[in-house]
Amino acid sequence: MSKKVRYTLEYPVRCSPAILYEFLSTSTGLQEWFADKVEDKDGRFSFAWNGSTEEAEVVESEENKSIRFHWLSSPKDEYFEFSIDKSEVTNQTILVINDFADKKEIKDQSQLWETQVKDLFHRLGN
């Protein structure tokens, strides 16, 4: 099995970091755009898509800044993370996504994120 590599995606967002963080860190917010159904119990999230369920735990979070999830079925050093940054030039809010994939799957995974983020932007009114 090949080792997955980390890749980063960045999206400018027209909303406050506090509102964006709600969509990235709560089961209600994540269910709006990320998965069909999301449940959260004590920092452990259950994500459901088309009848299949994946579980992840929050391993790190800083309010209105970032949240890192670890899929329970993945190696310990792999995660997916949402960070909220500010452009020093434009003062615009930037959503930064860090994830892991096999090198040959990065393009497909990036397209999947693109679709998910479009749903998020729709919910945010972007």
Automatic annotation (TrEMBL):
Gene3D superfamilies recorded: 3.30.530.20
One Pfam family this sequence matches: START_2
Transmembrane segments: none
InterPro entries: START-like_dom_sf, START_2
START-like domain location: 1-125
Official protein name in the record: ATPase
Species this protein is from: Ginsengibacter hankyongi
Lineage: Bacteria, Pseudomonadati, Bacteroidota, Chitinophagia, Chitinophagales
